[in-house]
């Protein structure tokens, strides 16, 4: 792995977006969000996605000059139109809006429509935990990779869900999960690196395991927990898609294979002010007590013992902030190729 300082990587991504016609302020906002994903170890949803975003900007699938805006609002809710721009812009606005509403109404629920892929859902719940709130975020996947349980037609995406909560002494609780056994981004990363995927991630239409990520188009992702994962994916799709007037089912556009059509991606962000229910210090003290109990549970043989969702990400981030963002050589090559095409400075000399 090659390590690149976060600031230098942010500057590189900003230059790339500016060269593609994105306003400088918006370009840096998206670049910072993407690099934050890499700092936290979500390497399948950070700068790895730059090429996909640039393809859509080039071909008209995404609006380079987008200006997300509120189109409907109550005291505790809002609906944001992403103006078909980079999804990070709409989702960052959704986080700010949800938190503002939670401060005054106790809860803020913000839906998003006409958005695009926005990276890992965890990015949009961490600010709530840092502010003493509960955070929830979900999205309709940017391509359909999963059939309904018992079927073979691809009608649902990985439809991720993230939940956060503050703690007192340690890292916040942050759960970020796809409703499939693996996210498609992980499989694309393995394909780029020439590695195989484990059995159980995908199966072919013949019902047999599929382990070659280069053949991913021949099969489909498996839901977590069988029919329960399918049901959860559909529930998130209703909240992020149908409720917001966004795509779900056959109306979902594969943002990778179709770079010229608007995706109308739907998402949602929730902020809950803990102080509206219980004193924040009492909440974090009790959360710390429960977390300590879980960590102290006897370890299962062959494992490192229990961990709390999110705490390992904080350790990864601290290391990457200090040492630089780790980039696989194949990704460095791909990013430098993009730089040449856009006539901007590449990663040479960084890290």
UniProtKB/TrEMBL annotation:
It holds the Pfam family Ldh_2. SUPFAM superfamilies: L-sulfolactate dehydrogenase-like (SSF89733). Transmembrane segments: none annotated. Keywords: Oxidoreductase. Belongs to the LDH2/MDH2 oxidoreductase family. This is LDH2 family malate/lactate/ureidoglycolate dehydrogenase.
